[in-house]
Amino acid sequence: MSDDLLTVGKITGHFGVQGGLKVFSYTQPMDNITAYQQWYIGERLYKGIKAKKHGKTIIAQLPDINSREAAEALIGQTVSVNVSQLSALPEDDFYWHQLIGLTVINQDDQTLGCIDSLFETGANDVMVVKSDQGDMLIPYLYGQTVERVDLVASEIRVNWTEIDQPEG
Fold first, then answer.
1. Domain limits of the chain?
2. Whole-angstrom Cα distance, residue 9 to residue 110?
3. What's the start-to-end Cα distance of the chain, in Å?
4. Cβ-based neighbours of 47, under 8 Å, separated by 6 or more
5. pLDDT for the residue numbered 161
6. Where would I find the beta strands (DSSP E) of the chain?
7. What is the CATH number of domain 96-158?
């Protein structure tokens, strides 16, 4: 997949007999995926997507997908959008995909590892930092644990001390 594409969901099933699709959205909130009018499914670009939230899922209708059989052929495919479709964020706000892969350096100039993923806890987001010593979880609290994000240098500066894990 091109570096200009971002995976935002996955086709999980068909809906109805006229080519409707059930889509699991990776966006937060989940219905943000409905704002994108152009989706890449596999290698193919679909324009003029009609999508809406339906209960706990997203239902989409793609141009040229007009039957249950055509919809079933897309099950399991990822849904991607061009990053140029993403909304601009305020300064010091970042999309998760921008943070993944950044080198994490603490206040003592110690490299802690690289961001492998992030997840939500309800209170705040958490970075999963991978290193040769294993995984470390660091809360993503900008201005507290996160001091600075530098996308150009591919690093994130944190106020965090690595704690030795107990043996056993």
1. 5-85, 96-158
2. 36
3. 42
4. 37, 38, 63
5. 86
6. 5-15, 20-25, 38-41, 44-47, 50-54, 57-61, 78-82, 103-106, 111-120, 125-131, 134-140, 146-150, 155-158
7. 2.30.30.240
pLDDT tens per residue across span 9-50: 999 999 999 999 999 998 888 899 999 989 999 889 999 999
Question: CA-to-CA distance for 166 and 168, rounded, in angstroms?
Answer: 6
- Say which CATH superfamily domain 5-85 falls into: RimM (2.40.30.60)
Sign of the C-alpha dihedral, residues 51, 93, 153, 111?
negative
pLDDT tens for 124-155 read 899 999 999 899 999 999 999 999 999 999 99
Tokens describing residue 46: 């679909």
Which residue has 């993403």 as its token pair? 86
Amino acid at 67: S
